[in-house]
């Protein structure tokens, strides 16, 4: 109560990281929270169970929603049904989501601060920042012998041209999803060209559908 601070640990495909924010006066509290997330994560059965039930509710009857059903078909198609890319099911959440396993996995990923780079942006006194980072980040465990590396999960996009028509729902509406995959020599310039090309294709597709619809209705 009365504090403006948040810290969130996250694990994604390639990174273990923290994101956080605070008011200037709560900077030290934010650092304390980061330290505790590393050294003393809280294992709460009640909170875990509540979140598990919320997840089950979120994925319950997801195929009854035309939009969700359509997105699931896209995910399955683009990932070739790769387990890490498709949506969860209630059965998976109930069977596979286990507090002890999740807690152990978390502790393994955040057992050492070795390799972490901390970046701070905002309005703060630099000397005050140095003091709290030295106290709460400098004291974090760091296993210098431990080296993390990436693992190829074999997630690959399908090759060739794939066309699918999905019929779902009762409303008189439609959604078009077009995706192009391939390799390229990445640069900011190439990225901008692809973004502009995507916008152009969207405009042309909208014009085509709109003109044909007007002709049809006339």
Shape: extended
Q: What would the average pLDDT be, to the nearest integer?
A: 90
The radius of gyration computed from the alpha-carbon positions, rounded to a whole number of angstroms, is 24 Å
Largest sheet: 2 strands, antiparallel
Overview of the structural elements:
- The protein is mainly α and 218 residues long.
- It is 46% helix and 6% strand.
- It is built from seven helices and two strands; from the N terminus they run ββααααααα.
- It has a two-stranded antiparallel sheet.
- α1 packs parallel to α6.
Structure characteristics:
218 residues, mainly alpha, 7 helices, 46% helix, Metalloenz_LuxS/M16
List the helices and strands and how they pair.
Layout (H helix, E strand, L loop, with lengths): L4 E7 L4 E7 L4 H13 L5 H15 L6 H14 L10 H7 L2 H11 L16 H11 L51 H30 L1
Antiparallel strand pairs: 1-2
Helix pairs in contact: 1-6
Pfam family, one: Peptidase_M16_C
Protein name: Insulinase family protein
Organism: Mariniflexile gromovii
Q: Short summary of the structure?
A:
The protein has 218 residues and is mostly helical. It has helices at 27-39, 45-59, 66-79, 90-96, 99-109, 126-136, 188-217, and strands at 5-11, 16-22.
């Amino acid at each position: 109560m009365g504090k403006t601070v948040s810290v969130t640990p996250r694990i994604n495909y390639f990174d273990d990281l923290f994101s956080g924010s605070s008011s200037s006066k709560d900077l030290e509290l934010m650092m304390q929270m980061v330290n505790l997330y590393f050294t003393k994560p809280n294992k709460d059965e009640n909170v875990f169970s509540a979140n598990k039930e919320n997840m089950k509710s979120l994925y319950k009857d997801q195929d009854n929603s035309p939009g969700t059903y359509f997105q699931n078909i896209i995910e399955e198609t683009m990932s070739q049904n790769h387990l890490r890319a498709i949506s969860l099911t209630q059965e998976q959440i109930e069977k596979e989501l286990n507090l002890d396993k999740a807690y152990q996995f978390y502790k393994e990923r955040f057992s050492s601060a070795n390799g972490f780079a901390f970046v701070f942006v905002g309005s703060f006194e630099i000397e005050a920042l140095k003091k709290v980072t030295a106290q709460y980040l400098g004291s974090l465990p760091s296993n210098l012998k431990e080296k993390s590396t990436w693992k190829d999960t074999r997630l690959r996009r399908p090759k060739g041209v794939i066309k699918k028509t999905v019929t779902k729902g009762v409303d008189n509406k439609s959604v078009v999803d077009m995706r192009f995959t391939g390799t390229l020599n990445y640069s900011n310039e190439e990225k901008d060209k692809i973004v502009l090309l995507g916008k152009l294709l969207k405009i042309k597709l909208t014009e085509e559908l709109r003109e044909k619809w007007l002709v049809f209705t006339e």
